[in-house]
Amino acid sequence: MNRKDREITDQQEIIDVLHRCNTLRLGMFMDDYPYVVPVSFGVDEVDGKVIIYFHGAIRGQKIDCLKKNNHVCIEADVFYKVEPTRIGITARYESIIGFGTIEETDEEEKLHGLRKMVEHYQFSEYPIDRCRGLSNTVVYRIVVTELTGKRNLPGSD
């Protein structure tokens, strides 16, 4: 990381940033080019590992990519504003970058992953059992192997 002064070194702070993000961008391998897609997501921590859940249709380009290679890069950010500084202008933000592997969940973990997603978006009262047997929806988990964070908040320069 070039700007060490903006690096977030505390792992819990990085996870806290992830909880503030609305959209996760999932980078995958396609034949000759990378493929990036935004997804809704939920976060869990299991045995000291960060697990990210997202859902999608049972067919499509994202699924084709994941079948070929389950290694992914993730990015999420919170953009606050652009403001003037002593020497110009700067963006105020927090962001995370991570790497991991993706696995399809079984039916039980599918409901757990959907629960984490609705909790992430402040709908924890939603009756998740309504989702049981959703045959056109697949829930995946990303087992995060590396997670870094960066921020530039007001007053930091």
From TrEMBL:
Domain of life: Bacteria
Signal peptide: none
InterPro entries: Pyridox_Oxase-rel (IPR024747), Split_barrel_FMN-bd (IPR012349)
PANTHER family: 5-NITROIMIDAZOLE ANTIBIOTICS RESISTANCE PROTEIN, NIMA-FAMILY-RELATED PROTEIN-RELATED, FLAVIN-NUCLEOTIDE-BINDING PROTEIN
Protein's name according to its UniProt entry: Pyridoxamine 5'-phosphate oxidase family protein
Species per Swiss-Prot/TrEMBL record: Clostridium muellerianum
